[in-house]
Each structure stands twice: as structure tokens, then as C-alpha cells.
Amino acid sequence: MADTVIVLGGGIVGLACAFEAAGRGYKVTVVETGKPGGQASGAAAGMLAPYSENTEQPDAFFRLCLDSLRLYPQWLAEIEEASGRRIEWIPSGSLNIVYHEADLSPLRTRLLWQNRLGAQAEIVEGSRLRELEPHLSQNVEAALYCPQESHVYAPDLVAALEDACRSRGVAIMDHSGAVTDVRLSSAPGVTVSTTARGDISGDRLVVCTGAWTGALGRWFGLHFPVHPIRGQICAYEVPVGVVRHMVFSPQAYWTSKGNGTLVCGASEDVAGFDTTVTERGIGRLVRSGPKAFPFLADKPVVHRWAGLRPAIRDGWPMLGQLEGAPQVVIAAGHYRNGILLSPVTGASVTDLLDGKADWGLLAAFAPERFSLAVEGSLSV
Ligand code: GLY
């Protein structure tokens, strides 16, 4: 009989794990406190931008992001087929703009190592830059153009992924209420207690609880230093085609969606689990708009919202099986890259369930890497 897997958390990462595990024959139940995709996943701008978001060096995290970017076309096709829905995926490419020539120097360094890893990027300026992005301000001196980056419409992707999971037989237990206990045993493996759905038991547990993962470490005698970083974001009504690329400036980014909105993100503030939108957070984004795109000076913001990025102390996700409890896999803390990293996370988690994961590749993301033994040990 197939192993039963409980996936805790119904954001895009949890759904990606459930989709892949169900595809490989596991009997999967997703347990979600509220509604699937109701937190960071649904709020995200949906950028698939490993080169623009990771600019320092080609480390293990950058390579994980790149692996995931490469999985995206096939992954989206599988979700579309399983869900019967079309997912908006715009291969726009990106422009990282600078206002001063001196700021080009870090972009040139980045270009050197990123082009060795497939970016196909180039510095563009003058008429070539204006051809690519006609409405950019004359204040923009130059840009790093990266044609390999793209973006998806995250709310639709999450909805399609939820449907795709159901079509593969995944049970989605939403509005489960809070998790009040996690008990490990040799058989059946794990029992999760929730306030609204009672006890749920399975052979394996995959923890994908995003910004809320910090509170779960205690069930495993481990320290998970995950904390929420609020991202405030806003949107203007701007016809499709006016802004052609994902445009990153030092202050903000802009992506044009198929529904005729230009999404502008995103603040990084520490406000606990508060998803309130503030004048300060949105004001900074709005003020940066006309500097890059003068036409934004006259545009009202039509929509504003916020999500909580799950940040980990060292900036890298936790992705691995617990040494002391091999029936538990942790996949959390994807910070700014949750949408991008979902396919590789689903594949890696299911490789771990299958017992055929590449441990060398995942060593850098070990969930135990922060843990000094804490009071109370595993009850396995
Ligand atoms: N990946 C975009 C953001 O976190 O704002």
C-alpha cells in the first residue's frame, strides 16, 4: 500500500510538494490552517528571477534557484494539464536599471559570472534601452538586460495547483485551525493535532508552513529561526504592453500583468505577523515610480496588499529530512523566492520521500543547521 504523506501548509510550496508526491504514487493530505494560498503565495508578484534576486555569487542557493527556473516550463505544463486551467506565464525578460554610470560596475561583475550560468545578459543603454522599454525615464542611465527571466500570475498559479493536486487525488483539509501537537512514532509515523480538524495521522510529514515554521521546531526538539518579513505591494491600472519587462530599480520593481495592472513591489519590513498595509510602506514604492516611469506620476494606486515572506537567519531555506526523525521533511523559509523555488522543492522533497535525494546538493539547506539541542527530545 502507498505511504501516506501529510503536508502541513497549503501555500505554493506545500501544494508543489503534494502535487509531485501524489504524482509519484503517495497518498497525500494537505493540512492548511486557513485557505490554500491565502498567505505569501497569493500575495506574491510571481517573479521567476534568480539572476536579479541573487546577485552576489553562484552559491548553492543560486544554483537551487536556477534548477527551479529550468524545471518551470515542464512543471507549468503538468499543472495546466492536470487542472485544465491556463496559467499566465510571461517570458518578459528583466531590466535592472541604474541612474548613475558608477552603479554599472556591480552589474558588470554580476554579468560576468551569471553569463557563465546561462543568463545571456547584456548591458543596454541609449537607443537600445529605449527600444526595449520605451516609457523608461531619461534619468535611467543603463540597465542589465536578462532575457531568461519571466513571471507568472501567482494567484492563478496557486489556484491551478490546488485543482491539479485534487485531480491527482490529494485531499485538501483546509481551515484546520491551529496545530496543537505533533507526535512522532514508528507506526503510523506521525500524528498532527489541529483545533478544527482533530487528529490526522500518516506515515510521513512534510512541513511547509512558511513564516509560521518557527513555532513548529519545538515539536522536533529543534530551533527553526524563521521569521516573517512583510512585503507591501501595490498596483496601478496600466494597459498590457506599456511596461514590457520586469523592471528592477534600487528602490522597487514593476511587473505588468495580463489583467491590465502594473504591480509594484515590495517593502521589506518587520512587523510580526501583521499584514496591514501602511502609508509609509506603500508611499516609498509610489515615490520611486515616476523616477523610473514618468507616466506613473499621474496614476493612482488601485490596489494594495501585503504578504509575509518566510525569512531564515542565513537567508537560505530549510530543505531536508530530519536526522533524528526521518519520517519528517522540512521545506520552509523560501523568503523572496517561494514561487520560483516551488518546482525544485516539490521534486527534492519527493526524492527525499523516495529515499533517492542528492544529499550533497541539499546539505547546505539542512534544517538542523541552526539547532543546538534544545530541551525535550524526539519521541520516536
Ligand atoms: N520576490 C519578490 C519579493 O519578495 O518581493
TrEMBL record:
Keyword Oxidoreductase: yes
Listed InterPro entries: FAD-dep_OxRdtase (IPR006076), FAD/NAD-bd_sf (IPR036188), Gly_oxidase_ThiO (IPR012727)
GO biological process: thiamine biosynthetic process
FAD dependent oxidoreductase domain span: 5-352
Segments forming a coiled coil: none
Enzyme Commission designation: 1.4.3.19
GO molecular function ontology, one term from the record: flavin adenine dinucleotide binding
Enzymatic reactions: glycine + O2 + H2O = glyoxylate + H2O2 + NH4(+)
SUPFAM superfamilies (alphabetical): FAD-linked reductases, C-terminal domain, FAD/NAD(P)-binding domain
Pathway annotation from the record: Cofactor biosynthesis; thiamine diphosphate biosynthesis
Record Gene3D superfamilies: D-Amino Acid Oxidase, subunit A, domain 2, FAD/NAD(P)-binding domain
Keywords, ordered alphabetically: Oxidoreductase, Thiamine biosynthesis
GO cellular component terms listed in the entry, alphabetical order: cytoplasm
Name of the protein in question: glycine oxidase
Organism: Paenibacillus darwinianus
